[in-house]
Amino acid sequence: MSPVVLITGTSSGIGLAAAIQAQQAGYRVVATMRDTSRADDRLEGVDVRRLDVTDPESVTSVVESVVRDHGRLDALVNNAGAGHIGTVETDSVENYRKVMEVNYFGVVAMTKAAMPHLRAAGGRVVTVSSVGGVVGQPFNEAYCAAKFAVEGMMESLAPVAAQQGVTVTVVEPGAVASEFVANVGVDRESAIEAAGPYGASLQGYLSRTATAFSGAQTPDEAAATIISALTDEQPPFRLQTSDWARAFVATKLADADGTAVQKLTTGWI
Ligand SMILES: NC(=O)c1ccc[n+]([C@@H]2O[C@H](COP(=O)([O-])OP(=O)(O)OC[C@H]3O[C@@H](n4cnc5c(N)ncnc54)[C@H](OP(=O)(O)O)[C@@H]3O)[C@@H](O)[C@H]2O)c1
Predict the structure, then answer these.
(1) Fewer CB within 10 A of the end CB, N or C, for the chain?
(2) Whether residue 143 lies in the annotated active site
(3) Could you read off the pLDDT of 193-229 as tens digits, one per residue?
């Protein structure tokens, strides 16, 4: 019987592409999203269910109903996430908490609910992190903090889960041309104005980001890495989705005192 994968955040971007590719790879796909009326036509024949990863009731009931209806759960793809731009002095603590809720606690809640079933199936947890889960980036304080939390949690969980037969992988995209930037909802001019003393630095950051996104991967390309994390016999713990992402992450991982990263990211602003 074909394996069952539950994917979060499939209304657009990488999650949608992963749902389509997983179905083509022979999985029974449960594609979850906050608003099922937004389901893409290409998800025809896919089991689409409503799920908000920040709603504990929604998380447990969806996982239980998937196992009830499909009889098993072989893989969880934690893909849902949202960016945020700001810096601590001018941002609110409330915003930091919200960014943590979707990007980190959502991942914790999903993984906790899925784990007994993944253990029974000898399954996999694949979590879409970011290069921002390894390298802190200007004006991404809340977002990178949440993605660092995801990586710390998953890196710690990996050996424990492996002893139970469950493989844990994080996928680290760089820039991907999805709805991600639009969903952050930054109006360039008003954000620069509201940034006060940080305005010039933010302007530099936003210009650099626009350049980076002009060479962005497609969601399909990024999703292919998720599929390899699902299907490769023994995927590594950390998988980047492009050569650029691999080189960027490698800078940090070889940078014991932080000098190389500070030099690089200061150059952005
Ligand atoms: N695009 C990039 O450059 C990039 C780079 C590195 C990492 N990533 C990561 O890749 C993942 C996918 O992002 P994307 O690029 O495909 O962006 P996207 O097109 O904005 O997709 C994000 C998805 O997450 C969903 N989502 C947001 N909050 C949710 C919640 N509370 N519960 C359930 N779903 C929720 C969104 O659903 P709604 O439609 O309901 O809002 C949407 O389907 C994210 O984890 C992101 O951090 C993206």
Answers:
(1) N
(2) yes
(3) 999 999 999 999 999 999 989 989 999 999 999 999 9
Q: Domains in the chain, please, with CATH?
A: 4-266 (3.40.50.720)
Going across the sheet that includes 47-50, the strands are: 47-50, 28-33, 4-7, 75-78, 124-128, 167-172, 238-240
Task: Identify whether the C-beta of residue 242 lies closer than 8 Å to the C-beta of residue 219.
Answer: no
- Report which protein residue has its CA nearest ligand 1's atom 44: 81
Task: Kindly give, in sequence order, each residue whose CB lies less than 8 Å from that of residue 67, ignoring residues fewer than 6 positions away.
Answer: 73, 117
Residue 264 CB coordination number (10 Å): 15
pTM over 0.90: yes
How far apart, in whole angstroms, are the C-alpha atoms of residue 3 and residue 23?
A: 10
CA atoms of 204 and 213, how far apart (whole Å): 14
What percent of the chain clears pLDDT 90, i.e. is strictly above it?
97
Residue labelled with tokens 């952050």: 184
